[in-house]
Amino acid sequence: MLSNPARTTSELRARLQQMTQRGPLGSGGSPALCSGHEALDALLPGGGWPLGALTELLSDQCGIGELELLLPALQSLARGGRCLVWIDPPYVPYAPALVQRGLPLERVLWIRTQRPQAALWAAEQALRCSGIGAVLNWSEHIVDRSLRRLQLAAECGQTWGILHRPASAFHTSSPAALRLQLQPLTEGLEVHIKKSRGGRAGGRLHVPLRRPVTLHADGSSDALAVHSAAGAAA
Q: What is the Cα–Cα distance from 135 to 85, expressed in whole angstroms?
């Protein structure tokens, strides 16, 4: 994991190049990635998460199950030798939980930045790398021009770009292929399809999620591998 904000541009480029060499994308890649949730796949064009495009998850809360929603697809990418880039998650990724849930650490690159522009630059570079399977970005400061650059980068690398954004972002334009509003339920998530390129917007569904396992060193539970205690990351 790359956690030091002082890392140089050249070091990040070298790391992305190494990951690309370890996990090349086959020439016959599918335009969609199975989400692992049948009801959701049935509503998405191509039957899954759009590859070579951006997906926006719109919610004002973190840790409501959004990473559990993504987990089956992330596991599939990792099993296929693809790498996963996490940029500025709200908590420190908890390494033992990542491994427990089928995301080996050698397939995870955690990038922590100090400036919004640095986060967007890192996301664009990662999306262009064919060995990267998914880029998860929690940047709150993003404008239309930046979104379009990220969309073009995802198209170039045929990578799955995931943007965690506040619910209010829906009132601004976006080139994202898929925009989902998430609301927590007692046992899962309510998913409202706000935009679906090539499909039909407006659909709602309840996605049941497995009961979260203990993922934090302090014994508490959350959606996946995020932990705020110092020294939790490997």
A: 5
